[in-house]
Specification:
With about 675 residues, this protein is an alpha/beta fold. The chain is built from 23 helices and 20 strands. The chain has four domains: about 70 residues; about 350 residues, Alpha-Beta Barrel (TIM Barrel); about 50 residues, Alpha-Beta Complex (Oligo-1,6-glucosidase, domain 2); about 100 residues, Sandwich (Immunoglobulin-like). The chain is about 30% helix and about 10% strand. Helix 18 packs antiparallel against helix 19.
């Protein structure tokens, strides 16, 4: 085992897989690339020269941050990167299919109480079948007071009555099995609700002392708090008069964090998972698993990382080696009787080496892992970010695809219930709404990995036009608004609202637009749990019979991907990796080859195409196992500008703003 000290160099750290990961983490939040630290004049510098490293690289380090890096590296033997080799590649249903992510409260209201529900999914099941999806991922449906949209669970064994019953879930499971569709549940891993019986046993005045002692250790509690901040603003600690302790909550103060170092707690959580597995579901998304394990010493957070991330203490609950062991325990229990049961880990904003350590066939920890690096440009935060770079999004996805081996398989997603709508992130110009929505589907469904499509994404849904804080239901946004208003000399209420609305999760949570009737056809109730916003011309009813709609573009691409397995398992080759304006890549195998060309900007460029001479050069220079096409004519199969589809591709013809198309080479 290597003994790491301040005398080790930047080059030494970069040569370590864990070290590379830690420096990637720091440079990403600094708004830089890891390449900045690979400069020849930086590589020989020892870590103790952190002031000089900071000056030369523009990436700030201090002694505390260097100590954190060294401390992690001295535990590197507990991160078994070398054990990820796998001799054979296995085809799996979760590698081949499309997962459709439903935010249950906003999908469809079957009983007109203003809330979407499980019966609503059953009632609209024909729509799901029309998308040709392979699996459905549900947002949390367990019993909850709904302070945080169901991510605060009060009872792991019951269904939230607002969303339905166990009988409803059983009916949905049966319906899914009849149509060979898998059903995946979201299982929050980091916290429970304050209304959970475990927490109530600890904090209520009439508590049973024996139970109180047991369940107190189910949660993270200290006599005195450290300086950690909640992700939802303010201190991450809440004081309870009974039992005179501070309890950690990385999210809202209604959601105490559970203590995964406690073996009894782990056993309880696994039992709850096994219950629903036996109930008939096909998989779990282990939400917030990436932050569920904390450094048991609970040291104060680093000033530099606080400035970079806006969260104090984040370095002490990321890259925790114990997480690997706890995920292995879960994996073994859930897989021992059903190897086809899907486990999706939540890898937060971790980078390539760690993602491969958490997720993949050889890890025995999870099958797939969600990484959120694509959601923000490096160095930006959700509530303060500007337009998202299409180059950053595509480059992040393709970096993951380059890591594909016999174990690791990436997940491709750009929307979920926790981020704003992707089309609105790319541009505020509504003229390009349809083109961008189709471009993103082209990128997502022709790249290598498992696509997760979030409800409304297939319609090109954009951010809602909220105009008042009273419309906001997201507790994170509400807390940030209150925090900003505590500084009236910096923000007035208008500024505060504009700031929080930029990143509010509620944009992704408004009701799905079914038609142009009251509440967009979501509910007949006078009032819905969150406002529904009219979207003329873009509802499901509007788009269903429009051959050029975003919805039918998705359907066509999904059908193409299903028909041509080349678009699933075929090789990927990026032709112009460093071009920030245009993306060109190939998907190919012995049977078929496809060429995709995408304009990543709102400027007009010229098409490049792929003639026989270029194909031959690629074969010769890169030793690609490509065939030469018999026909020199290139016909566009599908393009996001309708007049391009089924037409011959003419080289150097205009490639319009955000244009994307796919050509079948052979």
């Amino acid at each position: 085992m290597k003994n790491w000290t301040e005398n080790n160099t930047i080059e030494n750290v970069l040569e370590s897989k864990l070290g590379y990961e830690l420096l990637s983490f720091i440079t990403y939040y600094s708004g830089k690339s890891i390449e900045e630290l690979k400069k020849i004049y930086l590589l020989p510098l020892p870590l103790k020269a952190y002031k000089l490293i900071s000056k030369l690289s523009g990436i700030e380090f201090n002694r505390q941050l260097i100590r954190w890096i060294i401390e992690k590296l001295n535990k590197e033997d507990r991160f078994p990167f070398e054990m990820l080799e796998k001799l054979d590649f296995e085809k799996k249903w979760w590698k081949e299919g499309i997962i459709y992510h439903i935010f249950v409260p906003s999908f469809f209201d079957s009983n007109d109480d203003g809330y979407g529900d499980l019966k609503g999914i059953i009632k609209q099941f024909e729509y799901l079948l029309s998308l040709n999806i392979s699996a459905i991922l549900l947002s949390p449906i367990f019993d909850s007071p709904m302070y945080d949209a169901g991510y605060d669970i009060s009872d792991h064994y019951e269904i939230n009555p607002k969303l339905g019953t166990k009988e409803d879930l059983k009916e949905l499971i049966v319906l899914c099995k009849q149509h060979n569709i898998k059903l995946i549940l979201t299982f929050p891993m980091n916290q429970t609700s304050e209304k959970n019986s475990w927490f109530l046993e600890v904090t209520e005045s009439n508590r049973d002392p024996e139970k109180a002692n047991k369940y107190k250790d189910y949660y993270i509690n200290k006599d005195m708090p450290n300086n950690w901040l909640s992700h939802y603003s303010a201190s991450a600690w809440r004081y309870e008069r009974i039992p005179k302790s501070y309890f950690l909550h990385l999210k809202s103060n209604h959601q105490p964090d559970i203590n995964w170092h406690n073996p009894e707690l782990r056993k309880e959580m696994i039992l709850a998972m096994k219950y629903w597995q036996d109930f008939g579901i096909d998989g779990f998304f282990l939400e917030s698993s990436g932050i569920m394990v904390k450094d048991e010493n609970y040291p104060d957070g680093n000033r530099i990382l606080t400035n970079l991330t806006g969260i104090t203490g984040i370095e002490h609950y990321t890259y925790q080696y114990e997480l690997l062991t706890y995920l292995e325990e879960i994996y073994q229990e859930l897989k021992k009787d059903n190897s086809e049961f899907l486990i999706i880990a939540d890898n937060q904003r971790m980078h390539s080496n760690y993602n491969k350590l958490i997720s993949g066939d050889a890890t025995l920890r999870s099958d797939l892992g969600l990484s959120y690096l694509q959601f923000e440009n490096p160095g930006e935060r959700r509530f303060a970010s500007v337009d998202l770079s299409l180059y950053h999004l595509s480059n992040t996805w393709f970096k993951m695809q380059k890591l594909v081996d016999n174990s690791f398989w990436p997940v491709l997603f750009c929307e979920d219930p926790k981020h704003t709508r992707i089309v609105s992130r790319i541009t505020q110009n509504k003229y390009f709404r349809t083109q961008i929505a189709k471009l993103l589907s082209m990128l997502q469904l022709t790249a290598k990995g498992t696509p997760i499509v979030y409800q409304g994404q297939e319609l090109g849904q954009v951010n809602a036009s909220f105009h008042d804080i009273e419309q906001i239901r997201d507790i994170e946004s509400q807390n940030k608004y209150e925090e900003l208003n505590k500084n009236p000399e910096i923000f007035d209420q208008t500024d505060s609202f504009e700031k929080i609305i930029r990143g509010s999760r509620d944009h992704a949570r408004i009701p799905l637009a079914w038609n142009n009737s009251k509440n967009n056809g979501f509910s007949k109730n006078e009032k819905t749990w969150i406002d529904a916003f009219a979207d003329p011309g873009m509802t499901i009813e509007d788009q269903r019979n429009d051959s050029h709609s975003v919805l039918n573009f998705y359907r066509n691409l999904i059908s193409m991907r299903t028909h041509f397995t080349t678009l699933i398992y075929g090789s990927l080759f990026i032709i112009n990796n460093e071009n920030k304006n245009m993306l060109r890549y190939l998907r190919y195998d012995n049977e078929h080859a496809f060429y995709i060309e995408i304009n990543l900007t709102d400027d007009q460029l010229n098409t490049m195409g792929l003639d026989k001479k270029t194909i031959q050069r690629l074969i010769d220079v890169y030793d690609l196992d490509l065939k030469m096409p018999q026909d020199s004519e290139q016909i566009v199969l599908l393009g996001n500008y309708p007049d391009r589809s089924q037409q011959e591709l003419v080289k150097n013809s205009p490639l319009r703003a955000f244009e994307a198309f796919i050509v079948k080479i052979y």
